[in-house]
Design goal:
The protein has 24 helices and 15 strands. The strands form three sheets. The chain has a six-stranded mixed β-sheet. The chain has a six-stranded mixed β-sheet with strand order 8-7-12-9-10-11, with helices on both faces. A three-stranded antiparallel β-sheet has the order 13-14-15. A hairpin with a 4-residue loop joins β1 and β2. α18 crosses α19 and α20 crosses α21. The longest helix is centred in the C-terminal third of the chain and has 21 residues. The protein starts with 7 loop residues before the first strand and ends in a 7-residue tail after the last helix. The mean pLDDT is 97.
Length: 630
C-alpha cells in the first residue's frame, strides 16, 4: 500500500448493523482526489442522486482524514466531515474539526468512516484498532457534548487515549447549524453536519488507535515537515508578506489580539448594526483575559499552534467556571457580540453553552441577533416572545432561547428552530430584511463588509457558506500565490482572481489531513505540502502545480454536485440584505459590495473557466480531469 494512507475505509450500515472494511481506490484515483474532502466528494457524486436529502437513511455521512493525518506534518489533525448539505440543500457539506480524532482513526488503520442507514435506537460507534462495535447510546441521548464525551470515555475505561466525536441536543433535534464536537475544544459546524448525524440516530464515535502510519521516505518526510512547521511562525522579511494566521493565533492568541479585529471594524456585533461598538467589546475581552482569566492553550495532534484554549474565570459570578474554546473569535461573536453582550465572562459562558449543546453560533446567534434587533426596534414584543425580553445584552434570554430551540418549546422552538430563512419568513418582512445568511447558511461570523474578497469568497463557496476562497483582504497574505500585501479595500480590481486562486489552495489543503491554520499565509506551504505528499506516498513528480490542480478539481466537483442537485445562477445571489448594506459607521461606512457583486461573481466564473450560468464548460471539465461529469 502507498505510504501515508492506512489503506482502507470502514463502511457502517446503521440499519443492518453491518461493519465492513473497504479498500481505497487505486493510486490513479487517489492522486486525483488525495483524501479528506476530495475523496469524500468523489463518493458523494457516485453514491447520491438529485432527489436525495441530507437526512435520508441512504445518504452517506462521512468522517474522513487525509494522507498526512496522524503524521509529523504540522497540525496533522484535520477531520473532514462530509455529507449532503442540510442548510443549503443543493450543496455538499464539508465541515472541519481538529483535536485528536482524525489522527487516532489513522492510527487505528482507517482513512475514513462512511455511514449509511439509520439505527432503530440511539447508538455510538467504538473503533479500537481493528475492533469495531456498534453500542447502545440510549443512556446518553439527550446529554450535551461535554457530558457525552466524559461518559463514553468512562464507560470505555480510558480517559487519555480515546477521542470522542459527538452531537448534542441540537443535533438530536436536527436543528439547522447543528454541529459535531470532539475533544471539547473542537467541532465541525458548517452544513448542519450534526443534524445529518442525528438523523441516523448516531450519537457519537469513539476511537483509539495504536498504529503508526507508514511513509515511503520517512527521513525526507521528517525534513520537509520540519521546514514547513518552522515557516508557520517564522518572521517575514520585507516583501514576503504578513505573518501567517497560525502565528497570530498561537497559544490562544485571540485573547491577546482581538482588538486587531475590532480596529478593522470586523467584529460581528449587534446583528451588524453598530460596528463601532465592537471596539469597546474587544478591548474589554482582551483586558479581562490579561487581568483575571487563566488561559491554557490546548493543542491538537502534532500542533505547535494551539489556537484553542481553556479559559478559567477567576472572579465574579462565573468564578471557577472553565470554558473550552476553539481558536478564533467567530464563535464568540456569533454567540455573544451579535446580541450585544459586552460582559466578557458572559460571552465566554454563552459561547461554551452553544458548543455544549452542539450548535453553530453563526446560525443560532444570527437567529437571535435578528430577534434582538427586532425587539429593540419594537417590532417584537414580550407577547410575541412568550415573555422573553430580548434587549441587547440579555444573557439569560439567550440561554433560554438555546434550550427552547433544542426542545422545540416556546418562541425558540416555534420560530428559531426553523432555521434562518424560514424563521425570518415567519416573522415577516422586517425580519427578512435583517436576517444574516448566505444561501440559508450562517456566515463565518465576523463583519465582512469591509473585506470584499472575503465576502465574495463566502458567497461563491461551493459547500454552502463557509471558508474557502478568502482572498487577501484580511489577516494575512498568500506569498505562494504572489500576494505579499493586504489588498486595498473597497476596490474590485483583482478581487475575483484572488478568490479563485486562494480557493484552489484552500481546497488542496482540505484534502491533506492538516489544519488550515498550518497553511494559511505560510510561505512555501504549497511546495512543502506537495513534497510531503510525494515523500509520504512515493508519488514521483507530485509538485506544487499538481497540488493546486487538485484544488481546482475540487472546486469543480462542488459545482457539479450543486448543479446536479438543482443549483441555478440565481442561487449565487441568495445573500441577505444586511450583508449588502453600507454600514453607517466604521471602516466601511458608506461602502457596499452590492453594485459590484454581479460583475465580481461573473469575473470569478471567468477565472474558473465557467459559463455565464455558473456551469463549468466542457473544456474546463476536460482540463481538470472531470470530463463527462455534467
Amino acid at each position: 500500500m502507498l505510504g501515508g494512507y492506512a489503506g482502507k475505509l470502514l463502511r457502517v450500515n446503521l440499519s443492518t448493523g453491518r461493519c465492513e472494511n473497504e479498500p481505497l481506490p487505486d493510486e490513479t484515483e487517489l492522486r486525483k482526489y488525495v483524501g479528506g474532502i476530495g475523496l469524500a466528494m468523489r463518493m458523494i457524486i457516485d453514491e447520491t442522486h438529485a432527489g436525495m436529502k441530507a437526512t435520508d437513511p441512504d445518504a452517506p455521512f462521512m468522517m474522513m482524514n487525509g494522507p498526512l493525518a496522524g503524521t509529523s506534518a504540522p497540525s496533522s489533525s484535520n477531520l473532514a466531515i462530509v455529507s449532503l448539505n442540510y442548510d443549503t440543500p443543493y450543496a455538499v457539506a464539508t465541515g472541519h474539526s481538529h483535536g485528536f480524532w482524525a489522527a487516532y482513526l489513522k492510527h487505528a488503520g482507517y482513512d475514513g468512516i462512511v455511514f449509511t442507514g439509520k439505527a432503530d435506537k440511539p447508538v455510538y460507534l467504538w473503533v479500537d484498532d481493528d475492533k469495531v462495535e456498534i453500542r447502545d447510546a440510549s443512556h446518553i441521548w439527550g446529554k450535551d457534548t461535554r457530558e457525552t464525551e466524559r461518559l463514553i470515555k468512562r464507560e470505555l475505561g480510558d480517559e487519555e487515549k480515546i477521542s470522542v466525536a459527538c452531537i448534542g441536543p441540537a443535533g438530536e433535534a436536527m436543528l439547522h447549524g447543528a454541529s459535531v464536537k470532539n475533544d471539547r475544544n473542537h467541532g465541525a459546524h458548517k452544513g448542519g453536519v450534526g443534524a445529518v448525524m442525528g438523523s441516523k440516530n448516531l450519537k457519537a464515535l469513539a476511537v483509539r488507535g495504536t498504529g503508526t502510519p507508514a511513509l515511503a521516505d520517512a527521513n525526507g518526510f521528517a525534513d520537509v515537515t520540519k521546514k514547513w512547521d518552522d515557516a508557520i511562525t517564522a518572521e517575514r522579511k520585507p516583501g514576503e508578506g504578513m505573518p501567517a494566521v497560525g502565528s497570530l493565533l498561537k497559544d490562544g492568541g485571540i485573547t491577546r489580539i482581538y482588538t486587531f479585529v475590532a480596529a478593522e471594524s470586523m467584529i460581528g456585533c449587534k446583528n451588524l448594526t453598530d460596528p463601532n461598538w465592537g471596539e469597546g467589546y474587544a478591548q474589554k475581552f482582551v483586558d479581562r483575559a490579561a487581568e483575571d482569566w487563566t488561559v491554557t492553550p490546548k493543542e491538537s495532534y502534532n500542533c505547535n499552534i494551539a489556537c484553542a484554549y481553556d479559559c478559567t474565570i477567576n472572579s465574579g459570578k462565573f468564578a471557577g467556571f472553565t470554558a473550552s474554546m476553539c481558536g478564533g473569535g467567530e464563535n464568540i461573536e456569533g454567540a455573544a457580540a451579535m446580541i450585544g453582550i459586552d460582559n466578557p465572562d458572559e460571552a465566554l459562558a454563552l459561547t461554551d453553552y452553544f458548543d455544549s449543546m452542539g450548535i453553530d453560533s453563526s446560525v443560532a446567534g444570527a437567529l437571535m441577533g435578528m430577534c434582538y434587533e427586532l425587539y429593540e426596534r419594537e417590532l417584537l414584543s414580550p407577547q410575541d416572545t412568550g415573555g422573553l425580553e430580548l434587549n441587547w445584552g440579555n444573557f439569560e434570554s439567550a440561554m433560554t432561547l438555546i434550550d427552547q430551540m433544542c426542545t422545540g418549546e416556546g418562541f425558540g422552538g416555534r420560530v428559531l428552530a426553523k432555521g434562518l430563512k424560514e424563521a425570518a419568513a415567519l416573522l415577516g418582512p422586517p425580519a427578512e430584511a435583517c436576517v444574516l445568511h448566505i444561501r440559508g447558511g450562517g456566515i463565518n461570523l465576523h463583519d465582512w463588509r469591509p473585506a470584499w474578497s472575503v465576502l465574495l469568497g463566502q458567497i461563491v463557496a461551493g459547500a454552502g457558506v463557509c471558508w474557502q476562497g478568502p482572498g487577501v483582504d484580511a489577516w494575512t497574505t498568500e506569498p505562494d500565490l504572489g500576494y505579499t500585501e493586504i489588498a486595498e479595500p473597497f476596490v474590485t480590481e483583482g478581487k475575483a482572481e484572488a478568490v479563485a486562486k486562494t480557493q484552489a489552495k484552500k481546497l488542496w489543503e482540505d484534502s491533506l489531513g492538516v489544519c488550515w491554520f498550518a497553511c494559511w499565509g505560510v510561505k512555501d506551504v504549497v511546495p512543502n505540502s506537495a513534497k510531503a505528499i510525494s515523500l509520504a506516498t512515493g508519488w514521483d513528480g507530485f509538485d506544487a502545480e499538481e497540488a493546486l490542480a487538485v484544488g481546482e478539481r475540487l472546486i469543480n466537483m462542488q459545482r457539479i454536485i450543486a448543479i446536479k442537485r438543482g443549483f441555478t445562477s440565481a442561487d449565487e445571489f441568495d445573500v441577505s440584505d444586511r450583508l449588502l448594506e453600507a454600514p453607517t459607521e466604521g471602516k466601511a461606512a458608506g461602502k457596499t459590495i452590492k453594485p459590484h457583486l454581479k460583475g465580481m461573481v461573473h469575473e470569478y466564473y471567468g477565472h474558473m473557466g465557467w459559463e455565464e450560468s455558473g456551469r463549468p464548460s466542457a473544456a474546463t471539465l476536460e482540463r481538470v480531469g472531470l470530463a463527462g461529469e455534467l
